[in-house]
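User: You have something folded?
Assistant:
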Amino acid sequence: MAHAGAPGRMTALTPAPAGGAVGVIIGTYQRPAMLRAAIASVAAQTHPVARIIVCDDGSGDETGQVVAECAKQGAGPVVWLAGAHTGHPGRNRNQALGHLDGLDWVAFLDDDDTWERDKLARQLARLDEGGVDLLGCGVTAIGPDGAVRRVYRPATGEVTLVSLATVNPFATSGVILRRQLFSELGGFDGHPRMVGWGDDYDLWIRAAARGARLENLADPLVVYREGQGIMAAVGRDWDQRAFSLARMTQGLPGHAYAAARRVLWGRHHAAAAEAALAHRHRLAAWRHALQAAAFFPSRTAWATLAHVGRGRPPKGSRFNN
């Protein structure tokens, strides 16, 4: 059975003026100092926000006190939602679903990330031109020491369902979308196993499958801390990733979305083949490589088969460490 918010006929979105009310959903768990910096970066926006909704995944520490202090210091209207600990970022963010009344746009920010001061203003300027329902932006990635590791500038223009299946160009902390769209999709998939990989990607895919228009700004407007979150720990759990893909693709409707399903599974098996090869699991590598070619016969699949035939991942592969 498809999960809540599975793709279907999309209700016509009510045009929301870019100058409309923006709410920011900040997910957090036991990182009060980082949370303070995240809230401060929202409060410093040149375009003021209507509401900051802090979704606390049962921290049980001074997080509530930090939120109260930020509100007193002029961060604006702040709502603190403290639920039981789940370890599930998507389910945690979904606490905000009942607190979106009066908002036109919803933006996401993780507690260990921050925004540049003109992040919302730059995005709303594009949204004011019309025709876009979900908009991301570029990212500056820093390490635990604060040093810049890389700057990611995504391609501009429409992100179609098939291109989204080929690569996920969206950082959650960079996304702003119509409140109506977020509500109609039912928020993030809250299944207990949709953790660490796929819960945010799944939301973008369901939005595209419903007919929403997705785009990115190339400008790096988010400062993202690498190696801090759940993804760093479980992103290479291939059984979990396969489960997530099954959840993500089971709701894609009809033959029109067959290409997206094939691309998603082809990419999954190609990456799993390289990982198996790096760990000298040659039989598993062959199995995944052949499945990659069956799902999505492409240069990536043929290259993966060649790597397995040579018995080693390509030079520079992320699995060579």
About this structure: The first strand starts at residue 22 and ends at 28. The chain has two domains: 22-232, 254-310.
